[in-house]
Amino acid sequence: MPLNLNARAAGIVEALVAAAEERRVASSEIDGGGRLIDCGVKQRGGLAAGLDLARACMGGLAEVSLSMGEVDGHAMPIVRVWTDHPVQACLASQYAGWALSEGKFFGMGSGPMRAARGKEEIFDRIGFREDSESIVGVLETGKIPPPEIYAKIARECGVEPYNVTLLAAPTASLAGGLQVVARSIETALHKLAELKFDLSRIVSAHGSAPLPPVAGDDMAAIGRTNDAILYGARVVLHVAGDDDMLAENGPRVPSCASADFGEPFAAIFARYNHDFYAVDPHLFSPAEVTFQNVDTGRSHTFGAPRPEIVARSFRG
């Protein structure tokens, strides 16, 4: 199958729907056109649903799995992701670059529907967009999206509303939390894009981050999932080309390059009166990033996990 993100995600969605009872999700048709796969809003969802949600969010171009690990001496599930198409899977699909609102509804949109829309600046950088008659999107939200959201997405992507499938889950859920923590590679690539790094040099990628306990509400969950990345994520990027540019730019990539680094995200967020745009944007990246040069054989590692901060955040 060619790199058609929406078609690949659609295959994952159909398998998820076929196992809806097992996955504890529900599929429903929307008045006016569209389909909702509820992975954690009104349904319980779970880890298996979260894995499918993360895979669909990456356009079927990445493997996502769970393993048991350790954080600061305590057993902790670890979300592992790897892909041979990191730019397309992460920046063209997984990045939550589409804020969707209608009335009292708000959700952060990600998934391959973004590649069909193609209106964000990042698509000019990566040179990747796609045409698709049917699209798949992921919404990070605690509410059921209204029909108007489907109509808006359909207009922006040039499809009919009945060809829009949305998967939804709040951050404060097993499935929703897992798909957010599966963004270890994506945060590294987004930081590199901000630093004007030549993204065509990135060949393959692997990332891992601890999965936090489900929080009592979405605000607390946002803090925990951010800390899982900022202080717990480790990413290996297989890159081509020279080493000098890696040595020069590498120190600016991990989260420790930010002046806001060092406190749990909830404390940082509160300090800025819960204004995301006031937080230093350079904070949002993995704790540790390793560049492995496939041409020269050299490796460059920058940053390091801070498991004590992760543990403090997860206990809060």
Low-confidence stretches: none
CATH architectural category: 2-Layer Sandwich
What would you call the structural class?
A: alpha+beta
Shape estimate: globular
Query: Strands of the largest sheet, in order across it?
Result: 1-2-8-7-6-5
The top-level CATH class is: Alpha Beta
Beta-strand portion reads 15-25%
Largest sheet: 6 strands, mixed
How many structural units, i.e. domains?
1
CATH topology-level fold name: Methenyltetrahydromethanopterin Cyclohydrolase, Chain A, domain 2
* Tally of DSSP β-strands: 12
Description of the molecule:
The protein is of the alpha+beta class. It has one domain: Methenyltetrahydromethanopterin Cyclohydrolase, Chain A, domain 2, CATH 3.30.1030.10. 36% of the residues lie in helices and 24% in strands. It has helices at 5-18, 20-23, 47-57, 86-94, 113-117, 121-126, 147-157, 174-181, 184-194, 218-230, 244-249, 265-271, 307-315; strands at residues 26-29, 35-38, 63-71, 74-83, 98-102, 105-110, 135-140, 164-169, 202-210, 234-239, 288-293, 299-303. The strands form 2 sheets. A 6-stranded mixed beta sheet has the order 1-2-8-7-6-5, sandwiched between helices. Strands 3-4-9-10-11-12 form a 6-stranded mixed beta sheet. Helix 4 crosses helix 9, helix 10 (218-230) crosses helix 12 and helix 10 (218-230) packs antiparallel against helix 13. It is globular and about 55 Å long. The N and C termini lie far apart (45 Å).
